[in-house]
Amino acid sequence: MVTQAIHxxxxxxxxxxxxxxLKHVRERTSTYSVVTASIFLLFGVLGxxxxxxxxxxxxxxxxxxxxxxxxxxxxxxxxLVGIELPRWVGMALVVxxxxxxxxxxxxxxxxxxxxxxxxxLPLIAMFFSWFYGARVARxxxxxxxxxxxxxxAFGPFAxxxxxxxxxxxxxxxxxxxxxxxxxxxxxxxxxRLESHSDPLTxxxxxxxxxxxxxxxxxxxxxxxxxxxIAVLDLDKFKSINDGGGHAAGDYVLRSLTAxxxxxSRQTDIVGRLGGDEFAMLMPETDEDEARVVMARLREYASHxxxxxxxxxxxxxxxxxxxxxxxxxxxxxxxxxTGAQSRQQESDTVALVS
Length: 353
Fold this sequence. Notes:
Elements: H1 2-13, H2 20-28, H3 31-51, H4 58-81, H5 87-106, H6 111-154, H7 167-196, H8 206-223, E1 227-234, H9 237-263, E2 269-274, E3 277-283, H10 287-299, E4 305-311, H11 318-333, H12 336-341, H13 345-352
Antiparallel strand pairs: 1-3, 1-4, 2-3
């Protein structure tokens, strides 16, 4: 109930997201495109404001005008047309902002713009970390800070007597920017973890498993290595819920998942596709080896389950591979071997009851 109250409170605080035009934009394009376009809009508006300054050079007028045109143009394409922005657009935004920042800190005497670019650095760091991950964001942000540090050290705002930017300002801006970067990476990690994990069993949920499977399929194809996928389905799981309640069913799901994770190899990935249906991803494993793994796992199972395996082939899709494994699992479930392996089901029901 507490969770529901939190969700209701959050929904009320974000009521502005339900505005008609914004909802229409969100339905047509991605969150990445909306956020990127919003930052373009911000810089476009700042470019227009800069044009009204009376003490800027001709080059800075051209720079501000171009920023306004590009920023408002990209925003219009997303807001009015609903296009999906490719990832390189956001990267180009980060690089362009870094170059403009180097200019204003190292080659211009505009104090207002020098302070403005330092204020914008945390926003760029957060954007970088949200959509490009730790490896790219940290390396890119470090390069940006080094370039800006060099521009400030040798430019008109070099720390010294009468400088508008002292050492404390520069160090503080760099540390705050990096703090925002790490905070963004932490939030990204938590969101991905919660959206890709099954809260009951700790295994990957369907979305997380498919994402991991697609990654491993590309790697297996690229390096020409075997990859096997197994579908696992509990036998007569409904009788456990009927006999001992949903708490008993949850106990069986958690215990079996823990067994699969602890007894399988470190490289194997377990995912819960839904209900009592699971899948296991086995890199560097062909179909025959996968059968051996499944047989060993079921030998120690606390509740009987059926399985089917398939080997991924070049050109396969994850849906196609899961469908083949699912059909193999149902064939095994009806076989004599499967029936013999499920004799322990009555013992499991008695135990959890």
